[in-house]
Specification:
Blueprint: H1 11-24, E1 40-44, E2 47-50, E3 55-58, H2 61-64, H3 73-85, H4 96-108, E4 115-119, H5 122-137, E5 141-145, H6 154-159, E6 175-178, H7 193-211, E7 216-222, H8 237-248, E8 251-255, E9 279-282, E10 294-298, H9 300-305, H10 321-336, H11 339-361, E11 365-371, E12 374-382, E13 387-388, H12 400-411, E14 414-415, E15 417-419, E16 422-425, H13 433-451
Parallel strand pairs: 3-14, 5-6, 5-7, 7-8, 8-9
Antiparallel strand pairs: 1-2, 2-3, 4-10, 9-10, 11-12, 12-13, 12-16, 15-16
């Protein structure tokens, strides 16, 4: 970290920022009077700090998007240079930086996903991928997993499987949910990964049969589910879904909004499974979140549907020059600094072994899951029964054990990613080994608080 960026205390400025926030900012996913947002004074690399001089090691990467950390000078300079050259331009025109971003992304996507439709973020990417699939097939329904998150817009939130869907679930969005494999909490009473895979595929095909194969446009899956718990699918599962889609003429969509761009130790998580979808959604790590950008990578077959037939969708800021300049620079940084390879190395030699060591010492850790810079600890009350440390979708007093754990992390200088009964370990993909070990040590101490709630 640059010593010039060392945090210094300025509580009066922090109080002014907080007062303006509380007066005027309406926060997402929150009861507005029950939240107390931290006023952030600055950030660099894997750290950020507040106006009281407290520095935090960010084990959340923002919302799992700062894959190259905060304020990378190469990307900041690229944004500044683009702003001086061409700050913005309408999406119907060919713009050099937009074309270059699309080319660089297409070069790294699997298979023939060579056409890129740009959006402002992941939810819009999912919205448009589903629209493309429905128009390509002429079918209305889309299948998605219960343990999933696909975004906050109308179709994306209906596709989502977690409780954030419930208040907005219209029941008329043409979405059908199914159980994806998750051996640790298997809905199929499986004894091992092979059995979990086989039973999950059987369940999916039965669901398609009951819904009517000729009515199903697409199956959408997070390649490795993110917010839902970082559950790596068992060997053969995604290949099995690909085969089912091919057999019934269903479009296979992989959501790589969180798992893409180095997060799992590959450019895209699909590479771990040797699977090529028909559509692939991305956002977040494409430019480390420096300027909002997402998109859909489109196969030749789906793109051909719109060769002479207009695609009925578009966004004012599709392929925004500043966002695309950030993407070009970010991909260049990832190549030059071998960020993808570093994430793989970090997962194999530091994060994976370190988290498993924590699990061996702490009765509150039921399972460790992940790869690259993409991990989760499943926290439990009882390791034998696997009872979660807090109930599903807990809040208030019922969530007190997880709240106490999170508070202990923050007191130790670590900002944790906490969701339900899990803490996710998702730092910047270029975090150093020393920084990663610093975070693990703080987690070690904080987990003693979780241990107090085990039986």
């Amino acid at each position: 970290m640059n010593p010039d960026a060392t945090p210094h205390a300025d509580p009066r400025a922090g109080a002014a920022v907080k007062a303006a926030d509380r007066a005027h900012v309406f926060h997402s996913w929150s009861a507005q009077e029950l939240i107390d947002p931290l006023a952030v004074a600055g950030a660099e690399g894997a750290y950020f700090w507040d106006y009281d001089g407290n520095r935090y090691l960010d084990f959340t990467s923002g919302l799992v998007f700062t894959n190259i950390g905060y304020q990378h000078p190469t990307v900041v300079a690229a944004i500044q240079e683009q702003a001086a050259k061409l700050t913005t331009f309408a999406p119907a025109f060919a713009v050099d930086v937009r074309s270059e971003a699309a080319r660089l992304i297409a070069e790294r996507t699997p298979g023939d996903l060579d056409k890129i439709f740009f959006t402002n973020g992941g939810a819009e990417a999912v919205e448009n991928a589903v629209r493309m699939a429905r128009l390509h097939t002429g079918r209305p329904k889309v299948l998605s997993a219960y343990r999933s998150y696909h975004g906050g817009t109308h179709t994306a939130i209906n596709l989502t499987g977690d409780p954030r869907r419930w208040p907005s679930d219209s029941g008329t969005a043409g979405v059908v949910h199914f159980n994806a494999p998750f051996l640790y909490r298997s809905p199929f009473y499986a004894a091992d990964e092979a059995e979990e895979c086989a039973r999950a595929l059987e369940h999916l095909e039965a669901t398609i049969g009951f819904e009517g194969p000729a009515t199903v446009a697409a199956i959408i899956l997070e390649t490795i589910p993110g917010t839902a718990g970082i559950m790596t699918p068992p060997p053969g599962y995604l290949a099995g879904v690909r085969e089912i889609c091919d057999r019934y003429g269903i479009v296979f969509v992989l959501d790589e909004v969180m798992a893409g761009f180095g997060r799992t130790g590959k450019w895209f998580a699909a590479e771990h499974f040797d699977v090529v979808p028909d559509l692939l959604t991305f956002a977040k790590g494409v430019n480390s979140g420096y300027v909002p950008l997402g998109g859909v990578a489109i196969s030749a077959a789906v793109a051909d549907t719109f060769a002479t037939r207009p695609y009925p969708g578009g966004l004012t800021y599709s392929g925004h020059p500043l966002a695309c300049a950030a993407a070009v620079a970010t991909i260049g940084v990832m190549e030059d600094e071998k960020v993808v390879e570093h994430a793989a190395h970090l997962g194999a030699t530091v994060l994976g072994p370190g988290l498993r060591e924590l699990a061996a010492r702490h009765p509150s850790v039921g399972e460790v899951r992940g790869t690259g810079a993409f991990w989760a600890l499943d926290l439990v009350r009882n390791a034998e029964t696997r009872e979660p440390l807090v109930p599903y979708n807990a809040s208030g007093e019922a969530n007190a054990p997880m709240a106490a754990f999170a508070a202990a992390c923050k007191k130790g200088g670590l900002w944790p990613f906490v969701n339900m009964n899990r803490t996710h370990v998702v730092p910047a993909c270029n975090i150093t080994e020393a920084e990663a070990k610093e975070g693990l040590a703080i987690l070690d101490a904080a987990l003693t608080v979780a241990d107090e709630h085990t039986v």
